[in-house]
Amino acid sequence: MTQHIAITGANGFVGKALSRVLLERGDVVTGIVRHPQSTYSGVREWVFGADDFDGIEDAWPSTLHCDVVVHLAARVHVMKEAVSEPLAAYRATNVTGSLRVARAARRAGVRRLVFVSSIKAVAESSQDHPVTETDRPMPTDPYGISKLEAERALLEFGAQSGMEIVIVRPPLVYGPGVRANFLQLMRAIAKGVPLPLGAVTARRSMVFVDNLADALVHCIVAPGAAGQTFHVTDGQDLTVAELVEALARQLHVPTRLIPVPVPLLRLAGRLTGRSAAIDRLVGDLRVDSAHIREVLGWSAPYTVEQGLLETASWYDSTR
Residue 114 is inside which H or E element, if any? Predict the structure, then answer.
């Protein structure tokens, strides 16, 4: 059945992938964006530029009737923080802004909101078992804290208003159009830069953007998704060294890995003030995505190899 889906942040990395999948299904998609003509072709646009969605309840167009809102827009992890109170800035967008979207959508008759959170709302690392939806959340940075607070606030709003809330927590998302650290890693591999990661045996979960988009479609349409929290991964966790080797194969360049012992990497992190970044690089973050498979019957349509091939092909096309 054709549905009308509104997506905040529809012009972003995940938003464009989700828009494409929904349009291919025959759904109607409206992107709630800050800038015009920035969404995937075929997406209707509502340009709303207020910071932190201030005033969205009163501004919501009377003509925008949709079944589900997917809330992707967020203040994401900032590498070089410029504000004096980061947590307050994250809360303003990720907590207050999310609640404003939910209230406006519910007032407009929207029955379900799918909130794309982050695995950082639960943990930065996994210890003796992959991170599950029932683990006690222990976020460690302002971004993760704000995402967890947003989850709780939205679930409370859903309980009060009758709106169906679905929480999705992806780990690192990659694919065509990826930015930040993953793009920097591809650039280094493509240029033949020797990387001191050959001795890193920790495994980290990831999710290909089209796998995430497919999971979000399930969360949009499945009755059983209401009120649930789901972790979504590719289902195959690579070490950093294995990731480098796989990308090098897809980019058709030699693998240049140096087996620097992990304690030396940690020492270098302390000396350079980058301990947090090094800890993320050398530490395990395995995520269990069995719950969405059991509840919704979802399975990743693309393998890690297929996802990395698509990502490498996109990178090659941009050089």
Answer: strand 112-116
Name residues whose C-beta falls within 8 Å of residue 117's C-beta, 6 or more positions apart in sequence.
147, 148, 150, 151, 167, 168, 169
pLDDT for position 46: 97
Domain that holds residue 23: 4-176+206-233+286-301
Q: How far is 142 from 140, CA to CA, in rounded Å?
A: 7
* Residue 251 maps to a domain: no
Domains: count for the chain:
1
Could you confirm whether 302 is annotated as catalytic? no
**What local confidence, expressed as pLDDT, does residue 78 receive?**
62
Residue of 143, 174, 302, 315 marked catalytic: 143
Could you give the residue ranges of the DSSP H alpha helices within 108-166?
A: 142-161
Q: Does residue 213 form part of some domain? A: yes
- Cα 290 to Cα 92: distance, rounded to the nearest angstrom: 32
Per DSSP, the three-state class of 168 is strand
Q: What is the CATH number of the domain that holds 65?
A: 3.40.50.720
Considering just the CA atoms, what is the radius of gyration of the chain in Å?
Answer: 20
pTM above 0.70, yes or no: yes
Residue 16 domain flag = yes
Tokens of 208: 């290909």
Is residue 44, in this structure, part of any structural domain at all?
yes
CB atoms within 10 A of CB 307: 24
Mind listing the pLDDT tens digit for each residue in 206-258?
A: 999 999 999 999 999 999 999 999 999 999 999 999 999 999 999 999 999 99
CA angle 55, 61, 62 (to 5 degrees): 125
HSE-up of 109 (CA within 13 Å, CB side)?
Answer: 8
Helix (H, G, I), strand (E, B) or coil at 161: helix
Task: Tell me how far CA of residue 277 lies from CA of 83, 85, 246, 266, 269, in angstroms.
Answer: 20, 21, 22, 10, 8
Average pLDDT for residues 32-52, to the nearest whole number? 94
Q: Say what percent of the chain tops pLDDT 70.
A: 98
